[in-house]
Specification:
This protein is about 40% helix and about 15% strand. It is of the alpha/beta class. The chain has two domains: about 160 residues, Aspartate Aminotransferase, domain 1; about 230 residues, Type I PLP-dependent aspartate aminotransferase-like (Major domain) (Aspartate Aminotransferase, domain 2). It has an eight-stranded mixed sheet with strand order 2-9-8-7-6-3-4-5, with helices on both faces. The structure holds pyridoxal-5'-phosphate.
């Protein structure tokens, strides 16, 4: 059913609707719900898919006969690097297989850049005075808090369906040499679900930057996390950058956190061979090698790159119905009122919900008081500040399907109630 836009309703109609919604909301509160749509975590059923890992590895030597129980092999097991090179569309020599967290790798790269500078830097970034980063918004909260923790200033640009606004990025980086880098989640972005096109990637790879050691932190956390049968290919940033004369600009990150175990997977970094050497050089001062036992386990579990793709299809079977349910409930409850927009992601872990400007915090508060935990409003913006107070990130993967339905119904009530309150307030 399509509803009448709230903006077409008279004040009396709005007041009547408010009373009706308030009654629905009060009833919701009596249910004593404890639902959680906050963090993009895999559900237990998804984790169960990789339980065979718990009885691996068989034996303790890799392909070359190296004993994986011992020290060494800082770049990771060659066979795992090859497998993920194929999946990430890069060369094996450009890949490092590390510990369980790609976010830690991002943090390390940033720390090394700040303390020592990159392969193409004149000096450490921390010696440059002000350091700024371009942050497409909405974006991943931990990217922003990481920058904030190091005193790096954030310059926002809009995230569009085909990636960040590349013209705006190009304009900013051309004139400000304190802008040293940018974040991008190129495939099924957190939270907007957008996919960076080859054209946008080409523009970012080739643009002139005032800082000659400008870096693109290409966080491809959801590269393989398709929600439909169409396996969208990520833009080929390393080749594009090399072809346009900036081979050291991109540093790519990925992990198996949402493929096998979020707490015990393997993370990857991919970059130019010189960048890889630079990264391992610094890493080597603090590590004698990664957890190769876990890496061998992953090699045996997957068998091949195709094994990873097949495994991801099993994840899709579990989570795609949850995303469909989010869309079904939102459409049924909110379509036509003109107070909310949401995306239908084709991959990744999030649904991006934009509510009536000025009401996102109220929606989150109403949901919380009814026992439905949502990510705090503003989380997808630097310093937690959404200038329009309209963006809410929904993460439906973790709760079971019936809880997703119940939570979304409650969220829809909160969205409508907050919008009606706002409209009546204005009048
Ligand atoms: N990057 C993005 C965009 C994410 O959404 C997440 C987790 O939610 C991560 C990185 C974390 O990755 P990892 O588990 O490999 O540290």
């Amino acid at each position: 059913m399509t509803h009448t836009p709230l903006s077409d309703l008279s004040r009396d109609d709005l007041a009547a609707l408010r009373d009706q919604l308030q009654a629905t909301y009060d009833e919701l509160k009596t249910r004593g719900l404890a639902l959680d749509l906050t963090r993009g975590k895999p559900s237990s059923a998804q984790l169960d898919l990789a339980d065979e890992l718990l009885s691996l590895p068989r034996g303790c030597t890799d392909r070359s006969g190296t004993d994986v129980r011992n020290y060494g092999g800082l770049a990771g097991l060659p066979e795992l690097r090859e497998m993920f090179a194929e999946l990430l569309g890069v060369e094996a020599e450009q890949v490092v297989a590390g510990g369980n967290s790609s976010l830690s790798m991002m943090r390390d790269v940033l720390v090394y850049l700040m303390l020592f500078g990159g392969v193409d830097s004149d000096r450490p970034w921390s010696k440059e005075g002000v350091v700024k980063f371009i942050c497409p918004v909405p974006g991943y909260d931990r990217h922003f808090t990481l920058l904030e923790s190091m005193g790096i200033e954030m310059v926002t640009v809009p995230m569009r369906e085909d990636g960040p606004d590349a013209e705006e990025v190009a304009r900013l980086v051309a004139e400000d040499r304190s802008i040293k880098g940018m974040w991008i989640v190129p495939t099924y972005a957190n939270p907007a679900g957008s996919v960076c096109s080859q054209e946008v990637a080409a523009r970012l790879a080739s643009m002139e930057t005032a800082a000659r050691d400008f870096k693109i932190f290409w966080d491809n956390a959801y590269a393989l996390h398709h929600l439909t049968e169409e396996e969208t290919k990520s833009a080929d940033i390393l080749s594009l950058a090399a072809a346009s004369g900036h081979p050291h600009r991109p540093v790519m990150f990925a992990s198996t956190s949402k493929i096998t175990f979020a707490g015990a997977g393997v993370a990857f970094l991919a970059a130019s061979v010189e960048n890889v050497r630079w990264y391992l050089g610094h890493l080597g001062h603090g590590s004698i090698g990664p957890d190769k036992v876990n890496q061998l386990r992953h090699v045996q579990f997957f068998g091949s790159a195709q094994g990873v793709r097949d495994h991801m299809a099993k994840h899709r079977e579990i989570i795609a119905p949850k995303f469909a349910e989010v869309d079904r409930v939102l459409t049924e409850r909110l379509d036509g009122y003109g107070v909310a927009r949401w995306n239908k992601p084709r991959g990744g872990y999030f649904v991006n919900l934009d509510v009536m400007p000025g009401t996102a915090s109220r929606v989150v508060q109403l949901a919380k008081e009814a026992g439905i935990a949502l990510t705090p409003a503003g989380s997808s913006f630097p310093h937690g500040q959404d200038p329009h107070d309209e963006n809410i990130r929904l993460a439906p993967t973790m709760p079971p399907l019936d809880e997703v339905s119940e939570a979304m119904d409650g969220v829809a009530t909160a969205v409508l109630l907050a919008a009606v309150e706002k409209l009546l307030d204005r009048g």
